[in-house]
Amino acid sequence: MTIEKIKIIDSIGQEYVLPKTFELRSEPSARRSNLLDTAFIHGAKDVSDGMFTPRHIEVSGKIWAATDAEYNTKWDALAEHLIKDNIRIQNKDRQIRLLKIVEISHDYPSLVGFHYGEVSIVFLAADPFWYSKSAQQKERAVITTPDTFQF
After folding, report:
1. What does the pLDDT read at residue 33?
2. Using CA atoms, how far apart are residues 150 and 81, in angstroms rounded to an integer?
C-alpha cells in the first residue's frame, strides 16, 4: 500500500509534494445559523440560509536536511509555492481550493545537533468542501420558485 503525500498545486497545474513528515488537519465547517427575534411569537424565527462557513486547513510538519544549504533549498522550494495565488491542497485524491494563507510559523529548534525545522501553515478555504481531482463545477438556473418576493 502506498501512502499518498500531500501536494500543493498552483493555478497552472505545477505540483509541489510536501515531505512525508507533513500532515494535514481540517477544522470542521458548520452551517450558518441566524435566529431573528420576532414580536408575538415564542422563541425566534430561523432565517439562516443553510450554507456552510469557510474552513481552516492546517498543514504542518518537519523539514530535515544534512546541511544548512540543503535545508534552505528545501524551505525556499516550499515558500515559492506558498506565495502563489489560486492554490489547491491535494490529499488522498481529494482537493480543496484555498483563498489565502492565514498564518505561517517556522521554528528552528536550536538545541538539536542536526538541521531541521518545524513548519505550520494555516490556510483559509472560502469553499469548505473537498472535491475529487476531476471535479467539474455545475451551475443551476432557478427558473421558477414557489416563493414570491416583494421589492
Report:
1. 82
2. 49
Give the separation between CA 53 and CA 55, rounded to whole angstroms: 7
Q: Which amino acid is at 17?
A: V
According to the model, what pLDDT value does residue 151 have?
65
pLDDT of residue 84: 85
Name the strand (E) or helix (H) holding 89.
Answer: strand 88-91
Nearest CA to 78 out of 3, 7, 11, 4 is that of 7
The answer to whether 77 and 16 are in contact (CB under 8 A) is yes
The reply to whether the predicted model has a pTM over 0.90 is no
Q: Which CATH code of 3.40.50.20, 3.40.50.300, 3.90.700.10, 2.40.30.200 fits the domain covering 7-29+49-132? A: 2.40.30.200
Domain edges within the chain: 7-29+49-132
